[in-house]
Amino acid sequence: MTIRIASTAEDLKQILQLQAQNHYETLPEGRRHPGGFVTVRHDLDLLTRMNEAIGQVIAEENGAVAGYALVMPESFKVFLPVLTPMFDTFQTLLYKDRPLPDYRYYVMGQICIDAAQRGTGLFQQLYEAHRHFYAPRFDLCLTEVSSSNARSMRAHEKVGFQTIHRFSDETDEWNILLWDWQGG
């Protein structure tokens, strides 16, 4: 298994294939919650622009993407309106008595592991790669996870994320998670 930054159009296409296979709308109801799921869909154009702004982290085995952890800079919030409530909420939050926008942060846009690779430590490896690649440029990594996605919540907490806020929108109840790379 190789963890690296996506560098080709084929890498990005494979990310989208894995995303489609694990999107909550395509999974049978029984597989959604125990196996984890993703809620946002990207297209190749958006993913290409995201990758040009900040490289997307992938795990590759035998030429196939086995997992990915997307990087979404705040400037991309306008391209995914479903994430607007999350980004708006960031503007109102404090962390260690400082407004969240005072920190250098990015949003871990989505993480997904192929079903055959779950439970192998790949989730943790992808996040450690994020820390390796991006801690010099950012103080915090933020993300949000659906309260109904218990597997993802446990996995994020194991990596070191902490819940700093909960909110509901028209789609679900969400936990805003923070991983502090400078102080913890």
Largest sheet: spatial strand order: 1-2-3-6-7-9-8
Question: Can you count the beta strands?
Answer: 9
What is the 3D shape? Answer: globular
> Level of helix content?
25-40%
N-to-C series of helices and strands: EHHHEEHEEEHEHEE
In total, the number of domains comes to 1
What is the rounded Rg?
15 Å
- The CATH topology is Aminopeptidase
What does this structure look like?
By secondary structure, the protein is of the alpha+beta class. The chain has one domain: Aminopeptidase. Helix content is 33%, strand content 29%. The protein contains six helices and nine strands, in the order E-H-H-H-E-E-H-E-E-E-H-E-H-E-E. The strands form two sheets. It has a seven-stranded mixed sheet. It has a two-stranded antiparallel sheet with strand order 4-5.
Secondary structure blueprint with pairings:
Elements lengths: L1 E4 L3 H13 L7 H7 L8 H10 L3 E5 L2 E9 L11 H7 L3 E2 L2 E2 L5 E9 L8 H13 L5 E7 L3 H10 L2 E7 L4 E8 L4
Parallel strand pairs: 6-7
Antiparallel strand pairs: 1-2, 2-3, 3-6, 4-5, 7-9, 8-9
